[in-house]
Write a structure and sequence with these properties.
By secondary structure, the protein is α/β, with parallel strands linked by helices. 38% of the residues lie in helices and 15% in strands. A four-stranded parallel β-sheet has the order 2-1-3-4.
């Protein structure tokens, strides 16, 4: 059996985009039966106190409850051990250590904080599509 592939979904505050990405990734992993094959990490370089209210509301529309989630700080070790580090459009300089062998991708997503419900829903839907495409790729690579 091969080691699990580790995917880190990282943002500065870990209060919006990375929380949505983590929730969709967790659902994809379960739906595809990849719990033993893919490890997920999420966190922020400067985490907020809570997940943005508009993000919680928008995710509830698609049946995902983020109300109990708390932003957390991502550690250097988590990033260093990840096969993929996906940043959400915030600077990756703080999360990509020199000598790290993994792959970094920046999804360049708009920050949902303070945006209208319609804008947050568009960001959510783009994240959902990107996560599904990432899982297609990861599944094909296994």
């Amino acid at each position: 059996m091969t080691d699990p592939t580790t995917v880190a979904l990282v943002c500065v505050q870990n209060a919006g985009r990375s929380q949505m990405a983590y929730a969709f990734a967790d659902r994809e992993r379960a739906d595809r039966g990849l719990e033993d094959d893919i490890e997920l990490v999420t966190g922020g370089t400067d985490p907020a106190d809570h997940v943005h209210a508009e993000v919680v509301e928008t995710m509830q529309e698609v049946g995902i409850d983020l109300s109990g989630r708390t932003p957390r700080e991502v550690t250097f070790e988590e990033i260093q051990n990840a096969d993929y580090v996906i940043t959400m459009g915030c600077s990756a300089e703080d999360v990509c250590p020199a000598g790290w062998a993994g792959e970094n991708r920046d999804w360049d997503l708009t920050d949902p904080d303070g945006k209208s419900a319609e804008d947050v829903a568009q960001i959510r839907d783009e994240i959902e599509q990107r996560v599904a495409a990432l899982f297609d790729e990861l599944e094909a690579a296994r």
